[in-house]
Amino acid sequence: MAAKFVHAVDTRTGKKVKVPEQHLKIFPYLRARDPKTPTAPQRPAPQVVPPTAEIIKGGK
């Protein structure tokens, strides 16, 4: 008997995966998802460092 594959999200890495349906019950870090709805990014956006007022100059 073939396993039924479902769309899921690995909450440890935030990656979308396709796993057998039984794995959703076995592994607590897998969450089912609807493949037609976009998922929000799991990782925070990178922080942009504002330019400093002082410019460090080396040498003489």
Overview of this protein structure:
Residues 32-60 are annotated as: Disordered. This protein has 60 residues and is mainly beta. The protein has a domain at 1-36. The protein is 7% helix and 25% strand. The chain is built from 1 helix and 3 strands. It has one helix at 23-26, and strands spanning 5-10, 15-20, 30-32. A 3-stranded antiparallel beta sheet has the order 2-1-3, with no helix packed on it. Strand 1 (5-10) and strand 2 (15-20) form a beta hairpin.
Number of helices in the DSSP assignment: 1
Strand order of the largest sheet: 2-1-3
The residue-averaged pLDDT reads 79
Radius of gyration: 21 Å
The end-to-end distance, rounded to whole angstroms, is: 77 Å
Helical/strand content category = mainly beta
Q: State the helicity in percent bands.
A: under 10%
- Oligomeric description of these chains: single chain
The count of DSSP E runs of length 2 or more, i.e. the number of strands, is 3
| Overall morphology | rod-shaped
**Poorly predicted parts:** none
User: Hey, roughly how much beta strand do the residues contain?
Assistant: 25-35%
